[in-house]
Design brief:
With about 280 residues, the chain is of the alpha/beta class. The longest helix is centred in the C-terminal third of the chain and has 16 residues, at about 185-200. The chain has helices spanning about 45-55, 85-90, 110-120, 130-140, 155-170, 185-200, 215-220, 240-245, 250-255, 260-265; strands at about 5-20, 20-30, 35-40, 60-65, 70, 95-100, 175-180, 205-210, 225-230, 230-235. Strand 7 (about 175-180), helix 6 (about 185-200) and strand 8 (about 205-210) form a beta-alpha-beta unit. It is about 35% helix and about 20% strand.
Length: about 280
């Protein structure tokens, strides 16, 4: 009998509102260890809000979020009592998040940006020499080893985003969250960031990714989820969701992307598809 994959993230009946605006409506979601889940949907569908709930950047009114079977944010299942701030900060360290904006400290070098978290923020502080060695390995991993002593304003947008990914990885997270990380980049810089993310997928990193990069969803995701008006409208393997949409809402959403984008992926050699 095959062993079921371990669940890293489990979300049950999640509800989130901003005043009278009900943004997330009864979200149920499981993300297994090593799985890449891509969230797609129109602006305002709740994608970013869901990520912010997973990373404790937004409180929610109902539901449960478990990371490695541990109930997060609240002390009880009814969201009545929030856990102490120190405990929340401890648990947040296990969840890496990369945003649209790079959020690098401009007065610190690339290396200094990366070692700041492990040496100052991580629950168990990492000695600077060890953090530096780890940071250099991560810079090599994202192809920026020669930029260790550079300042962020000397880097391209794609390079800055790769530094931001390395900085998140330096905290040794259990899961990585990506929120439209290529949306602020010039088109010619998008590929270098997506290639790093594809490599993370190959390496088995658990990832939840909000993106409109359909090619990335097709060649790196294990599951694609279409959020519509705060609800999960469709989910399944990438080719099923993207090539055979069931709802008119998803069909309308996918029409925004050129038909040739999907067609070209279908015709791509298997070696060019990260998870084929």
């Amino acid at each position: 009998m095959d062993r079921l994959p371990e669940t890293t993230i489990s979300v049950q009946n999640l509800h989130k509102s901003f005043g009278d605006l009900h943004v997330l409506k009864s979200i149920d979601l499981d993300v297994h260890r090593g799985e890449v889940v891509v969230l797609i949907g129109s602006s305002g569908s709740g994608k970013t809000t869901l990520l912010r709930c997973l990373n404790f950047l937004a409180e929610y009114e109902q539901g449960q979020i478990h990371i490695d079977e541990k109930l997060m944010w609240y002390c009880d299942a009814d969201c009545r009592q929030k856990r102490p701030t120190k405990e929340i900060a401890h648990d947040r360290a296990a969840i890496g998040m990369v945003f649209q904006s790079f959020n690098l400290f401009p007065h610190r070098t690339v290396l200094e940006n990366i070692i700041l978290g492990p040496t100052k923020v991580k629950p168990v502080r990492v000695p600077k020499p060890e953090a530096t060695e780890q940071a250099m390995a991560l810079l090599d991993r994202v192809g920026l080893l020669e930029k260790a002593d550079a300042y962020p304003n000397t880097l391209s947008g794609g390079q800055q985003q790769r530094v931001a990914i390395a900085r998140a990885l330096a905290m040794e997270p259990k899961v990585m969250l990506f929120d439209e990380v290529t949306s602020a980049l010039d088109p010619e810089l998008v590929g270098e960031v997506l290639n790093v993310m594809r490599q993370l997928a190959r390496d088995g990193m658990t990832m939840v990714v909000v993106t409109h990069e359909i090619h990335f969803a097709l060649d790196a995701a294990d599951k694609v989820i279409f959020l519509d008006q705060g609800k999960i409208a469709e989910q399944g393997p990438p080719e099923q969701v993207l090539f055979h949409p069931q709802s008119s809402r998803l069909k309308d959403f996918l029409r925004r992307f050129e038909e040739m984008t999907l067609l070209s992926w279908r015709r791509a050699p298997p070696g060019e598809k990260a998870r084929s």
